[in-house]
């Protein structure tokens, strides 16, 4: 698929906003499900990009910055894979290949993230100097420059992919043998499972395992829609909260959940 000038500009704007939101975390444009959906919306490929964003979101659930360890760049992975999916023109058939390409792009994006954050360190010193001068205008200017650098971190690679054009991207995807495409699909599915498993590992307690199992059982009932599953989930959460307030055990400090295997709940209840 060949994009016109307006579509290219809109894709670059979405890419720029996704890069900024990777730091701001205000509107979450950098999240895969939002970034891919917006690119699909402006390019006329909403359904394939929405599916791609949903699957990438499952992978990115397990990505988090912990201490000095920086998580893979979800914004670059989302934007680049969505653009490749659109340019490839394969529709939903190209989602597996796009996911397989997204993961190494996310890791490669760490280099750009490190570079931009290193440059931002120097900008902080300029802002300190402006603060000593009492110049709020300069402080605002340097802050905008630092944020725009984050946007360019995604917009420039997106522009390079768009500059390559649909022809080479489509030719590359079509040259992939069937065994490679099938392998990429299997690998992409495994990565999704690993990302979701990392989230479960962080939040798993004895109290939530029954709800987890119940959710899987209900998901097998084809007659229940996503809205129905959401309503059931909200209802179960409200029931759980109501029962937890009623008590059900004795402990020191008046906390009914102490020692129940949910340390976060214990901390909140004892606060």
TrEMBL record:
TM stretches of this protein: 6-24, 33-54, 66-87, 99-124, 144-167, 179-204, 224-243
One Pfam family in the UniProt entry: EII-Sor
E.C. designation(s): 2.7.1.69
Membrane topology label: Multi-pass membrane protein
Protein's cellular compartments: Cell membrane
Annotated GO MF terms: transferase activity
Keywords: Cell membrane, Membrane, Phosphotransferase system, Sugar transport, Transferase, Transmembrane, Transmembrane helix, Transport
Domain of life, source organism: Bacteria
Gene Ontology process terms (BP): phosphoenolpyruvate-dependent sugar phosphotransferase system
Principal localisation: membrane
GO terms under cellular component: plasma membrane
InterPro entries found in the cross-reference section: GatZ_KbaZ_carbometab (IPR050303), PTS_IIC_man (IPR004700)
Region (Disordered): 249-271
Protein name: PTS system, mannose-specific IIC component
């Amino acid at each position: 698929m060949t994009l016109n000038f307006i579509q290219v500009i809109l894709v670059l704007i979405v890419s720029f906003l996704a890069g900024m939101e990777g730091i701001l975390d205000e509107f979450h444009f950098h999240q895969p499900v939002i970034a891919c959906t917006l690119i699909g919306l402006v390019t006329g490929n909403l359904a394939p990009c929405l599916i791609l964003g949903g699957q990438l979101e499952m992978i990115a659930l397990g990505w988090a910055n912990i201490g000095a360890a920086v998580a893979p760049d979800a914004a670059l992975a989302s934007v680049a894979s969505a653009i490749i999916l659109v340019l490839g023109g394969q529709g939903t058939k190209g989602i597996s290949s796009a996911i397989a390409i997204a993961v190494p792009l996310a890791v490669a994006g760490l280099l750009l993230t490190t570079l931009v954050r290193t440059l931002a360190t120097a900008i902080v010193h300029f802002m300190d100097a402006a603060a000593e001068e009492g110049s709020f205008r300069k402080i605002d200017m340097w802050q905008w420059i630092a944020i725009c650098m984050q946007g360019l971190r995604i917009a420039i690679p997106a522009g390079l992919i768009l500059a390559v054009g649909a022809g080479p991207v489509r030719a590359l995807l079509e040259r992939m043998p069937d065994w490679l495409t099938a392998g990429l699909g299997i690998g992409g599915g495994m990565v999704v499972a690993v990302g979701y498993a990392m989230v479960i590992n962080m939040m798993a307690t004895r109290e939530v395992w029954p709800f987890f199992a119940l959710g899987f059982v209900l998901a097998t009932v084809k007659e229940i829609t996503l809205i129905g599953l959401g309503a059931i989930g909200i209802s179960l959460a409200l029931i759980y909260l109501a029962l937890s307030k009623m008590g059900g055990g004795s402990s020191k400090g008046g906390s009914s959940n102490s020692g129940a295997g949910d340390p976060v709940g214990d901390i909140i209840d004892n606060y």
